[in-house]
Amino acid sequence: MRVGALHTVPGLVPVFHSLLTELDPGLDVVHTTDPALLAGAIERGVDDALIAAVADHLRGLARSGATSVLVTCSSIGEAAVEAGSRAGVPVVRVDAAMGAEAVTRASRGGGRVLVLATLEATLGPTTRLVEASAHGKAVEVTAHLVVGAADARARGDQAVHDRLIAEAIAEARDVEAIVLAQASMATGAGDDSRVLTSPRSGSAAFVAGLSAGS
Hints:
Low-confidence stretches: none
Number of helices: 9
Strand content: 15-25%
CATH architecture of the largest domain: 3-Layer(aba) Sandwich
Shape: globular
């Protein structure tokens, strides 16, 4: 089966290719990467131009034979859902499974979820995703920007990026779940059991959906 993956960070292509083919060795994964989508989300937020650009990529993946597309960038997640509807292409947000799991964990305890992001553009989409996943459950979602982490990653200082994320996790108090909003943040997750990341969970949900639909 041929599927698509739409990225905004080139470095995530091998990460998701390995995950998807590990979960289902029979998958033929076609990747499209466009950093301009993320730049647009940062500069303008989700607007018609961004949705149209995402839809164009989805149509291109569909023309290549992809039956469904995993969108690995949380910043464009909302745009991708709308674009998929317009283009008639099934889309799965990489952070959807993570958001649902955060609600499940929070509802077992005090109902508190912390969303961490390194980009301002991701805080809103991921926070709204978690809130929507609550489906009426009493869940309190707070959001925090990990200042300096995105700049560190942009200049190639992965160690500082990961350290800043780890420090933000360590400072978190009185929450049942900590959501790392971007797939690229997973390298700073550490071993705190409250932390949720999207690459593996999102890939697993995507593959499971393919099996359910076949």
